[in-house]
Amino acid sequence: MADSPNCDLKSLSPLQLFERVTEQGEKVRALKAGKAPKDEIDAAVRMLLSLKLSYKTTTGQDYQAGLPPKDLVLINNGTTKEEDEDLVDPWNVQTSNAKGVDYDKLIVRFGSSKIDTDLINRIERAIGQKPHHFLRRGIFFSHRDMDQVLDAYENKKPFYLYTGRGPSSQAMHVGHLIPFLFTKWLQEVFDVPLVIQLTDDEKYLWKDMTIEKAHEYARENAKDIIACGFDINKTFIFSDLDYLGTSAGFYKNIVKVQKHVTFNQVKGIFGFTDSDCIGKISFPAIQAAPSFSSSFPQIFNGKENIQCLIPCAIDQDPYFRMTRDVAPRIGQPKPALLHSVFFPALQGAQTKMSASDPNSSIFLTDTPKQIKTKINKHAFSGGRDTIEEHRKYGGNCDVDVSFMYLTFFLEDDDRLEQLKQAYTSGELLTGELKKVLIETMQPLVAAHQERRKQVTDEIVKQFMTPRKLAFEF
């Protein structure tokens, strides 16, 4: 967005204003550092002050770097009842809407950009092949600076991928596969390094488990991640409890981030209270550090200017909004992001799944019989109360969990559209749609289990050993 005083600032949301002030502040710092002409710096400063005044007028509060406003626009279905508002943060996802979270409103609230047809077409041109169905179907729906990543790729400049997993249980469910399946595709089509963070330290701080158990879960989850098919020569998986103590570069970046985020800011971003342990308060800097290539000197040869692209669910965005605010102040490029929707619980799209509820999803350890039972018994239906009503009025794919799961895992676009038309018209019954899902998920999970059996402790050790990857920097 151009830094023009003629821009109608009144039309911007609080979060859009916040982003404008942040960007303008970075511009002022860059002009000063580059010893730009005085009149140019003065004009940029005047624009910054104007933006800060508009921000205060709109929100009633002074701008604070790294502390986005609590958005004044509710994420709901046109009501202002607090109980109808969508709740989205790194630990909770709740909505009263059976269709799930309103992602268009979430984009406005978080200040990200929609992945539109133009961006998808540009990705297709860059990689020379059809984009992943997660992109085509809007499963990855929002981004920050993906256009910059494509600029770099088209100009033969390197970038790398970073994603992660909080190992809260020994068994992962199929929803946990979404970022890894997509990241694997990104790694293959762009041919770039990948780092995967296992935040076993986070789970110890947040969950009622021993530090040994958290570390054990990280190793077990690593086997499921490796079973997705990542290239060992291009992928580094690390446990925070292991890696933090061995990498000076990683720890230095953590300390830099910590210095530039105040306690007040981290409380505002993450909702921490005075009763939270100091480990929670300091943890966001640990999740931020892999966004900077200097955290992995063995991979990037100490280079600090390599941009990072982070595929993740949008509930993780607060961590990286903070990171993007800090990055220019510590001389690092801002990480880019690709956001996915939430994978719904079997019981409905009002919440995401819980690893502690075995009936909330299909787990990667489930047998074919367990998969069939869970889908038939627990998958929320968009069908009618009787066969006669269903034949007459049809089913609702927008709330039907079986159809939602097929949107994620049935790769055939034509087949998916046929099912949608048949279910919506009433030709296909709920039981028949569930049967299609069962027949899709049983071989998918079985194949994953077979690949996981081949992942030995030695292979895990190789993936998790800090080392040079198959790239020159």
TrEMBL record:
Entry keyword set: Aminoacyl-tRNA synthetase, ATP-binding, Ligase, Nucleotide-binding, Phosphoprotein, Protein biosynthesis
UniProt cross-references to SMART domains, sorted A to Z: WHEP-TRS
InterPro entries: aa-tRNA-synth_I_CS (IPR001412), aa-tRNA-synth_Ic (IPR002305), Rossmann-like_a/b/a_fold (IPR014729), Trp-tRNA-ligase (IPR002306), uS15_NS1_RNA-bd_sf (IPR009068), WHEP-TRS_dom (IPR000738)
GO biological process: tryptophanyl-tRNA aminoacylation
Pfam families assigned to the protein according to its UniProt record, in alphabetical order: tRNA-synt_1b, WHEP-TRS
Broad enzyme group: ligase
Gene Ontology MF: a single term: ATP binding
WHEP-TRS domain segment(s): 13-69
EC number of the protein: 6.1.1.2
SUPFAM superfamilies: Nucleotidylyl transferase, S15/NS1 RNA-binding domain
GO cellular component, one term: cytoplasm
Protein family per UniProt: Belongs to the class-I aminoacyl-tRNA synthetase family.
NCBIfam families hit by this protein: trpS
PANTHER family named among the record's database cross-references: TRYPTOPHAN--TRNA LIGASE, CYTOPLASMIC, TRYPTOPHANYL-TRNA SYNTHETASE
Protein name: Tryptophan--tRNA ligase, cytoplasmic
